[in-house]
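C-alpha cells help. Our protein:
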Amino acid sequence: MFQDPYPLFPVFAFLGFVLALVPLPWHLQAWNSGTCAYMLWVSLSCLVQFVNSVVWHGNVNNPAPVWCDISTKFLIGASVGIPASGLCITRRLYKISRVSTVSVTRQDKRRAVLIDLCICVGIPVLVMVLHYIVQGHRFDILEDVGCYPSIYNTLPAYFCVFMWPVLLGCVSFVYSALTLVAFYKRRLQFNELMSSQSCLSTSRYLRLMLLASLDMLCTIPVGIYSMYIANVGVPLEPYISWANVHWGFSYVGLIPSIEWASDPPFRTSVELTRYLFPASSFLFFALFGFAGEARKNYLTIFLKVSSLFGYKPKPASSAGVYRANKATPGALSSVGSLPVYVPRPATNEKRHLESLELSVAESDYDIEKSYSPLPSPSSLPAYDNEPSLRYAIPQAV
C-alpha cells in the first residue's frame, strides 16, 4: 500500500504559501506586476494544496464539492499563470535592456501593468474557461491528495489546456535569449542604465533574469514531460460531440491511494504536479528573500513587533559630534578628517621645559598686547595638563 509521507507535503505547502508572500510588499511598491503575479499564483496554489492534503488525508469523502469546483479550476489556471508571469518578467527585462535612456511616466507604468495583467491573469482565466470544453466530469478526489481536475483525453484538450505552459515557456525562452544578447552588447552601459531606474537596481535585475532563465529552462521540459506522463496508457479519444464529452458530468471520481498510486505514470504525474508549487516558492524566496531590501524590511518588521513587547533598541551614537579633548585618531579618521597627533604623557623634564616655554609665551603675549590694536580678550582659556589642539576639528556633516 502507498504510504504518504504525511505531514511532509502539508509542511512544504504551507511554507511555500508563506515564503512566496514575504517579498510582495516591496515588489508592489516597485510596480513589478509580473513578479507580484508570480508570487500570488504560487502562494495561493500552495495554500490550495495545503488545504487539500490536510482535509483529504486518509479519506475520499466529498464534504465540500463547491470547494473542489473552485480549487480544481484554480489549479488549472495556476499551471498556466506561473509561466505567464515568467513571460511578463522576461518581457519587462527585455524592454529595459533595449532602451538607451529610462524616462517612465506614471501613464507608461499603468499601461505596462495592464498589459502584464492581460498576460498573467487574462490567459489563465481563458484557459479555465476552455477547460470546460474538455472537462469529462465534475472532478476527482484522490486520497491523500484532494481535489483533482478532470480532463478528457482528446485532441482539443491539447490545444485548450495542455499546450499553454509549453507555449508560454517557448515565448519566454525567446525573450530571455534576446535579453542576454542585449545585455552582452550593452554591458558597459548597463550600470548607468540601472542607475536611472528608481525601482530596479542592478542586483534586482540580475535576480529577475536568473528567475526568468530558470523558469524558462524548467517550464518547457517539465510541461512536455507532464503532458506525456499524464496520458501514458490512456487512449486518445475522438471528440464526437459536446453531449458525448459531458455525458454524466455530475460524476465525482473517488479514488483511494492504493489505486492511483499503483499506476506509476499517474502517480509520477500527480506528485510532480503538486510538488512543483512549493518548489517554485522556495526558488523565488531563495532569490529575493535574502536581498538587501528584504533584510532591511525584516529589520523594520522586527523593530515594530518588538516594540509591542516593550523592547526599544539603543539609539545609535552620533558620529558627527566630537570634543577636542576626547577625540581619538581612529574616530576622526573614520569620518574622513585629518588624523590628530596625540603625544605620549610627558616626563618630569619635558613638563619643566613646557612650563618654561609657556611662561615665555605669556610674557611675549603681554608685550604684544600693549601694541595690539584689537581689544584684548577678557580671559584666557584655562590650561590643563592635556596638550591643546592647534587645528579646529571639522564637524561631520
Notes: Residues 7-309 form a domain with the Rhopdopsin 7-helix transmembrane proteins fold (CATH 1.20.1070).
